[in-house]
Amino acid sequence: MPKTQLCKNRSGRFYKRKKSSPGIPLANIILYSCFCLLAAFAVDELHAALECNGFNSDHPEWIFCDDFEDETALVRVGRYFEYGNDNGDFTLKDGVGLNNSLGMRALWQPGEVGAGGLKLGFGRNPSGYMNKEIRANEDFREVYYRMYLKMQAGWQGNPAKLSRATVIAGDDWSQAMIAHLWGDNKLNLLLDPVRCVDQRNNVKCIGYNDFSHMDWLGYQSGV
Length: 223
Hints:
Largest sheet: 8 strands, antiparallel
Radius of gyration: 17 Å
Structural class: mainly beta
Oligomer: single chain
Number of strands: 13
Shape: globular
């Protein structure tokens, strides 16, 4: 079975709606783009091509935007805190993005459970490792994000673990919540949120992926 090419297309934007209110601040958020199986979204090409240009001044409510036209290091101040290239299978390539622009290309091969990924941290965060100075002194109560993605023609499969957003509550990667964007058994995207705080807003999950203390709130498939 041949390798399958997946392309992350041009822009991903991240923005806030309002600052946090009292309670658990959704501040220490990291976003994982695991690039396992990807879904395709329609996009206005001209709008997407210009979306990240001057976004800090044009859209001060946006937290982060990356169209991958910046060929500087993916891991640096103002960008991602971690990048896994899956032995060269997930890399920045010319001609794979929108209108033959730069984009992130992933090769998915039979038997793999992951094909590389990017991790982005923003907001107030107890982990210095994750802090790349992206709005690092702010709390965010509501966060929305968007990715443009493209699959190779003829791709078949489930978009199993596309991304997850999580609130980091400690330097040991303890989590206060997880917002999974997975896939169901009908090839749809699926939201599967997790709560890791008790009724008094105390974080009860210890370390990363502490399944024994997670509260699964119920999943919802897309259409």
